[in-house]
Amino acid sequence: MKxxxxxxxxxxxxxDQLLDLRKEQFNLRFQRASGQLENTARVRQVRRDIxxxxxxxxRMQADARAQA
Length: 68
Hints:
The protein is built from 3 helices and no strands. The chain is mainly alpha-helical. It has one domain: Helix Hairpins, CATH 1.10.287. The model has no long low-confidence stretch (mean pLDDT 95).
């Protein structure tokens, strides 16, 4: 997931994606704790995607405040 792709989406779409990624992160943590996690790199990827989405959302809010 690239930041450019995220910038083209609405805030609602970004919040939906963020919710899905947090659910996935939760499931990955349980898989890791129980020893069932196969793709360990996915944990890092999900964490970074969450950060990307949060960054884009905060910049959208900052731009909205600047225009007001």
